Prior knowledge:
Strand content: 5-15%
CATH topology of the domain at 1-72 and 103-205: Serine Threonine Protein Phosphatase 5, Tetratricopeptide repeat
Number of helices: 22
Oligomer: single chain
Amino acid sequence: MIKHIFMVALSATVLCSSCMDNFLDTESPSKSSSENIFDTPVMTEAALMGVYSSMTASMMYGQKLCVNWQGVSDVEVGSNAFNLDDYNQTNGDTGGMNFYDDPYNTTTTWNDIWTFTEQATMAVDGIRMSPAMETEDRETMQAYLGEALTLRALGYFELVRWWGDVPFKEHAASSDLSNIYIGKSDRDTIYSHIIADLKEAVQYLPWQGEGTYNAERVTRGFAYGLLAKVALFAGGWSVRDGNTFPEQQLEHHPTISEMNGFFVGRPKNYQDFYQIALDACADLLADADNPHQLDPDFEEVWEKVNHLELNPYNENLFEVAFGEGQSGDVGATMGYTLGNGVINASRGMGGAGYASTTLYYFYSFDPEDKRRDVTCVFPSYEIVDGVAKETIRLNPLGVSCGKWRWYWMTDDYLQRLEQATSRISTGINWILMRYSDIYLMFAEAQNELHGPTEVESRTGLSAADALEVVRTRAFGAGSSKVKDYDRSSKEAFFNTIVNERAWEFGCECIRKQDLIRWGLIVDKVEAMKEALCLMYDYTFPIKVFDKELDRNDIPTRVYYKYEVDRPDYIDLSSLNLNQDMGIYEPNENKGEYYVNWVPMQVAIDQNGRRPDEVNDRYAETICRILVIGTGLNASYDYSELFGKLYWGSAAQAEFAKYPVGNNTCNYRHVFAIDYESVFESQGWLSNSYGFRN
Length: 693
C-alpha cells in the first residue's frame, strides 16, 4: 500500500515554520518557504503531504484520538476505567470520563491538533494565492484546495468537539502577530465556517479511485460525509458556557440541569443543520459517479485494514495513513490479545489495556448479528502449559476489541514482532469514516425531518430503507432480523438509530461523541453500570439496550472445544455465550473445557448457589463498575440500585469509601479549557478545575 504521508518530509517542516518562535528569521531565497511552496502543483502536493503527516502524531490519530480517548460510553471504556485507584485521578488518561487528564497529554494534543489545523489553513491561503490557479493547472490546484479545506475543517471539528469554544482564525498566522493571541469564538460561528469550507471543497475534490486519490487522501465522498457529520454535531447537544457567551439563540436540554453558568444546549434552528446533513448524504448516495459501496463481508473490512490493504469496495471514505514499524498504535494497544512469548515474541500486543469494551455491549447484540463476533473477542492467544493456544479471556469489564487482530497482520510485521523488545508501530491505518456512516446519518436526518417511512426523492430511500441497507449486511439478505426493529414513530426510530450506530461502529471512537450530541451520555453510561451490576449479582431481569435478559440468557459457565483442524484455536461455534446449559463436569479427554462466567466469578458458588456471606470480590466488583464515569456528575444516587442487589447493603458500605463527582460542574467538555489558559497564557494551560502544567 502506498503511504503518501512519508513521501516528503520537507513539506511538513516548511508548513510548521509559522508555529516556531523564529518564523520571522530571514532565509535564503533558494529555500522552500510558505511564499513559494504553492507556486507549482508538484510543490503544492508535497506541502499537502506534510499536512497529512501531522495527523499521524501520537497525540492525534496515532494514539490519543483513536485509542486513549475512546473514554467511557456504553460501548467503549478507556484504559483502567474500572480501576478503583485511578478512576478519579487528575493526572492521567484513566480519570472518570477523562474529565481530568495529564497536562502533557492535553497540552500536547491541543498543540498537535492546532498545528495540524494551522498547517491546513496555510495551505488554503497559499493555494488561493498561487499563480498556478491562473494556469492550465487550475483544476489540479482546485483539487488540492479541496483537500486543504477539508483538512482544515477536520482540524477545527476536532478542536470544537473536544474543547468547545476555541480560537478561530480564517487565515494563517500573520507576521505582525495580529491574529496570534486571540480570544475564543463560539462554536456556532466556527461550525458555520467549517460547513462553508466543506460545501466549497466538494465542488473541487475528485472521487476515490481517480488518479492518485485513494482512501489515504481526502476525496469527495469523505468531504460529503464530514459535512454531514459536522452538521449533525452543530445541531446537536453540547456543553455551553453561558458565562462567556450568554446571548445566544439556544434551547436548553429539558432534563439536564444548569450548573455554575454551564448548561447543555443546542441551536433553536437545529433542524436546519439536520437538513444540511440530509442533503450531503443524499447528494453522495444519489450521485451516479459515486464509487463507494458497503463491503458485503463485515469481517473483510477489518481483515484488509489490518493487512495494510485498501478496501476493494471503497467502503472506507478516509483512512489516516500510517507506516509499518514507523507509526500507528492501533492493534498494538487495543485489539485481540497476543500474549508475551507467543510466536517467539518478547512483546505482546492488543488486549484491553488502552481501550476495550464490556460484557454489557456484547449482550446488547442479537446473537445472529455478524458484527458481534468481529467486534467483541473473548479468546486470547497465550502460552498455556508451555503451548501457544487460544484461551478464554476472563475479564467481562475488559473485552477485547476484535476489529484489530494479530493474525490478520502482514508477515513482515509478525517477523518484526518476533524480535521486538518494546512496542512497535503496526502501520494499521485509522479509519476516520466508513460508507455505512453515510446510510445511518441519512437515516437519522431523514427521520428527524420527515419520519422513518417517508421516501427522500433524490435517493428513493426512506430512513428505514437506509437503515436496512446496513442491517442486511449484519444479518444476511433475506433474514427476518433485517426488519426486526421499531419504526412505529419518529421517537422509536431514533432509538433504533442510537442502537444501530453502537453495533456498527463499536470501538471506532464514535460512540462517546455521538452520545454527547444526543444528550444521552449520562443516561447510557448509567444504564450500562446498572446492567453490569445486576449481571454480577445474578439478579434478573436485566435491561441491555432495548431488550430484557433473563437468567438463562447469561450462563454461569461457558463451555468450549478446540477446532479439529486447528487445535490451538477455539471453535467459536461451541461457545454457549447466550444460553445457560447448567453445570456439569466436561471431559478434557474428549476435548471439552469450561470457564466460570460472570456470576460465578463473584456472586455464586460452583453449584450455582449464593454463599451465606458476601465476599470481598463481589463488593469490590460492584464498586469498580459504579465509579466509572463519576467525573460527570457532582453526585449520584444509587440507593435504588443497591436495593435490587442481593448484598446491596454490603456493596453500598464499600462504595461509600470512594469520592464521587468532581464537585465543580456537570457535563463539561472532556478537556474544558479556560479563556486565559489557551489564548493569553502563551504556553501555559490550565483547565476549569485548576490543574496546570
